């Protein structure tokens, strides 16, 4: 069976696809040469196991392309009329596919980010200056808010996936693990106001209803939210998982290191922080220095930044702040 034939077995509609690989993996053991997914059954010739990986990889790539097209404003249902993307989200201009007898190569024509990775800008011996961290983080939150408003969560936010363009403009890149998080936005543009401008879109709070619960355990060690790795039967809110990642990135900007180990279940600092933040409600307490644990936060971090960090790194997702909350925080509104 050729690769083209394999590809034709899996028609892709990324807007209607499920993001949990446990529910979308092809069942190669089905009898009578039947391929079964959560929603459909195809009677096709038996597909050798070696091609199953190809089909899954192709499906993942197509989902990433579909999400980037939507964020760039290339699709009819991209969220609002006249949407041309967001300055802080890397744009996808074109997709080229080079087909050979033994393999297929897909090329993405992306916006140029001449400043390289944001990871290289962070000094891992003390972090960024407070003003620089504020400038970059405000751009990052604005870009993530834009993605969330269009019903897309990134799920792999980290400094290595952030690029810098001209004028130190931060760009969110690498949507390979992204997923739809708003059920109403999947396949129907009516869930997002279709008469707004791209600037107006940024000022509208994130959609409060029809949240899809995701179950895929994805992300990068040190940056993945605790609820993602817990494999809860009810899944997790991808937007809240993104907010946790933002908290880790902000901590890295300000401190120059990571707040917790890569395995939170085995990290003493995370256990101590969880016990501290769940003992009462420290985020509502007066901003005294003694209210924040010194084992995690060095004295160089001011009280406004501390409160924002704690609201982003809250172990309980429902108590974690949103992008709109972060943009209104006292630390980010400083001039």
UniProtKB/TrEMBL annotation:
Its EC number is 2.7.11.1. It is an enzyme of class 2 (transferase). The keyword Nucleotide-binding applies. Keywords: ATP-binding, Kinase, Nucleotide-binding, Serine/threonine-protein kinase, Transferase. Residues 1-332 form the Protein kinase domain. GO terms for molecular function: ATP binding; protein serine/threonine kinase activity. It catalyses: L-threonyl-[protein] + ATP = O-phospho-L-threonyl-[protein] + ADP + H(+); L-seryl-[protein] + ATP = O-phospho-L-seryl-[protein] + ADP + H(+). One of its GO terms (biological process) is signal transduction. This is non-specific serine/threonine protein kinase. It comes from Aphanomyces astaci (Crayfish plague agent).
């Amino acid at each position: 069976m050729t690769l083209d034939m394999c590809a034709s077995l899996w028609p892709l509609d990324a807007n209607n696809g499920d993001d949990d690989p446990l529910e979308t993996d092809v069942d190669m053991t089905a009898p009578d040469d039947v391929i079964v997914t959560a929603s459909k059954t195809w009677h096709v010739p038996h597909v050798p196991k070696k091609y199953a990986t190809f089909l899954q990889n192709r499906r993942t790539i197509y989902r990433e392309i579909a999400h980037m097209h939507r964020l760039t404003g290339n699709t009819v249902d991209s969220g609002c009329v006249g949407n041309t993307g967001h300055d802080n989200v890397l744009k996808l201009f074109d997709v080229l596919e080079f087909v050979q007898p033994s393999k297929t190569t897909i090329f993405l024509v992306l916006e140029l980010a001449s400043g390289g990775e944001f990871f290289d800008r962070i000094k891992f011996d003390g972090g960024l200056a407070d003003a620089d961290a504020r400038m970059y983080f405000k751009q990052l939150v604005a870009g993530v808010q834009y993605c969330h408003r269009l019903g897309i969560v990134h799920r792999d936010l980290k400094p290595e996936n952030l690029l810098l363009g001209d004028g130190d403009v931060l760009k969110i890149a690498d949507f390979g693990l992204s997923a739809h998080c708003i059920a109403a936005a999947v396949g129907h543009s009516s869930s997002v106001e279709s008469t707004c401008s791209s600037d107006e879109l940024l000022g509208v709070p994130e959609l409060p209803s029809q949240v899809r619960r995701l179950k895929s355990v994805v992300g990068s060690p040190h940056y993945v939210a605790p609820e993602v790795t817990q494999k809860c039967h009810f899944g997790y809110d991808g937007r809240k998982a993104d907010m946790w990642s933002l908290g880790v990135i902000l901590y890295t900007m300000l401190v120059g290191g990571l707040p917790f180990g890569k395995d939170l279940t085995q990290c003493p600092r995370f256990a101590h922080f969880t016990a501290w933040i769940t003992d009462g409600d420290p985020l509502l307490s007066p901003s005294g220095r003694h209210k924040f644990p010194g084992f995690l936060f060095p004295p160089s971090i001011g009280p406004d930044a501390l409160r924002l960090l704690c609201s982003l790194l809250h172990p309980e997702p429902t108590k974690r702040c949103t992008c709109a909350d972060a943009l209104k925080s006292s630390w980010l509104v400083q001039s």
